Amino acid sequence: MLGIESSCDDTSAAVIQNGYILSNKIADQQVHRQYGGVVPELASRAHQQNIVPVVSAALKEAGIKVDDIQAISYTRGPGLMGALLVGSSFAKGMSLALNVPLIEVNHLHAHILSLFIARPGDQKDFPSFPFICLLVSGGHTQLVIMKSHLELEIIGQTIDDAAGEAFDKCAKLMGLPYPGGPMIDKYARSGNPMAFRFSRARVNGLDFSFSGLKTSFLYFLRDRMRSDPEFVTGNRNDLCASIQHAIVESLTRKLSEASQMTGIKQIAVAGGVSANSGLRESVTDLGRALGWNVFFPEVDYTTDNAAMIAVTGYYKFISSWFSDHHVVPAARYDRL
Ligand code: KG4
Ligand code: ZN
């Protein structure tokens, strides 16, 4: 099966055979860097340029020909409409041309199933069901109970910004390039997480909120820079470590509550922010203390990629869960 991902600013194609990933090619889009964020129209154009070479490269690396493809899975949503249209139109065209079934995939579902990506010969432990997944990406932050590969229940989510957005916006306030999450992670390693304290939101239940943290960071920087214009450059590592600590603490507090409330001790983290070394360390430590079995995707599969689309497509394929060619992409999309 060929998997295609084009929901945001990465064009990606992957090949999966009997549940094992044979190739995963990603073309990222440098064009957005100068704007400090993803420009939707430029993303669609770059997807159009990248899609054919990326699919060809994925087939080549997998050692298969176009005619060997038996099914095609693609991201239906959520994401940027213009970006989704490129991948979905390509997938539909190819499925018609080859006369093979088409499978639509929810991008968030795929981030969670990135935990099940394996290459031929890999000996990996997968989470057993039910497990709780903390899904943290640039656009979403959710707590999900996975009951099977194809059944999930959302038990908490952000009421404003996503965790990745909080990382990126705070990075931008410090003058770091987009996406700022990986930069904060890098500088935080040499900083003191207790150097500065920023206000944490108190939200009921298992929901999250990050917009207050961003505002408190904005005012804090503004005040300090009034008396010391070099404040950010002089304290970059400590600022990064402290803001990362605040975000990670908010995430892990709700994750612990979710485990306590449900009694589930199989715990996973997925999505772009699951690459964060502070979050990984903190969840691993908590897991040791609380008797959890903890799972993360391999770092290469945390941010957007087609391997996770292909693996999700594979589980839908073996359940004969196909979609028809009239299905249109959806910028907001909460079904599987
Ligand atoms: O899952 P993803 O690739 O795209 C969405 O579906 O949104 O996630 C991208 C997000 C960005 O906000 C990026 O800053 C964040 O993941 N991210 C990180 C790290 N690597 C990626 N945030 C913190 N630490 C990292 N190491
Ligand atoms: Zn994503």
Written overview of the protein:
With 336 residues, this protein is α/β, with parallel strands linked by helices. It has 2 domains: 2-117 and 301-318, ATPase, nucleotide binding domain (Nucleotidyltransferase, domain 5); 131-296, Nucleotidyltransferase, domain 5, CATH 3.30.420. Helices cover 42% and strands 18% of the residues. It has 10 helices and 10 strands. The strands form 2 sheets. The chain has a 5-stranded mixed β-sheet with strand order 3-2-1-4-5, sandwiched between helices. It has a 5-stranded mixed β-sheet with strand order 8-7-6-9-10. Helix 9 (277-290) links the parallel strand 9 (266-270) and strand 10. Helix 1 runs parallel beside helix 2 (81-98) and helix 4 runs antiparallel to helix 8. The radius of gyration is 20 Å and the shape is globular. The site of zinc ion has 5 residues, from helix 3. Residues 8, 111, 137-139, 164, 167-168, 179-182, 185, 271-273, 275-276, 303-304 line the site of 5'-O-[(R)-(carboxyoxy)(hydroxy)phosphoryl]adenosine.
SSE order and pairing:
Blueprint (H helix, E strand, L loop, with lengths): L1 E4 L4 E8 L2 E9 L11 H23 L9 E6 L3 H18 L3 E5 H7 L17 E6 L4 E8 L2 E7 L5 H11 L7 H8 L22 H17 L3 H4 L1 H27 L3 E5 L6 H14 L2 E3 L11 H12 L18
Parallel strand pairs: 1-4, 4-5, 6-9, 9-10
Antiparallel strand pairs: 1-2, 2-3, 6-7, 7-8
Helix pairs in contact: 1-2, 3-10, 4-6, 4-8, 5-8, 8-9
The protein binds 5'-O-[(R)-(carboxyoxy)(hydroxy)phosphoryl]adenosine and zinc ion.
